Amino acid sequence: MRTDAEAVGDAEAEADTPDAASADPVRTYLREMTSFSLLTRESEVAIAKRIEDGQRRVLRVVLGSSSAMDEIVFLGAELRHARLRVKDVVRNVDSDDPDFDEQWHVDRICKVFDKVARLRKRGARSAASRAVGATRRPRPPCVQRPTRRADGVHQALQRREGQR
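Above: the chain sequence. Below: its structure as tokens.
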């Protein structure tokens, strides 16, 4: 006759066999997870910084595109006419919060989109004057180039996001 300790030992030995591993997915998962090391705080911060840097780079490229500028102007109009909600346009907004003021966010976002539209018009005017071939003085450094314009819009969006 077998004791309980022998039965438990046999059950554990059976659980370590490959056939038993497929029968108990939780045990397999836990065994697999122990083979991976967890992130340290420093490595997690480094990964987060890389992700944020990549998002900023993508935003700069997108904001340099005329079709993206058109879409931003379109989104502003849709937001003003209540065809879109704030949570459809901006991430990291908690519209379920009882203190959430949709109209305040709409006004804030539309201000930024209006600035984008003004910068876009200014860029279109300067591009049109260059296309005509008018001889002009070189642009002063205070006049923004398209990449600087995109950076300015990006910074304005970040400042506005930080103010809420």
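The mean pLDDT is 76.
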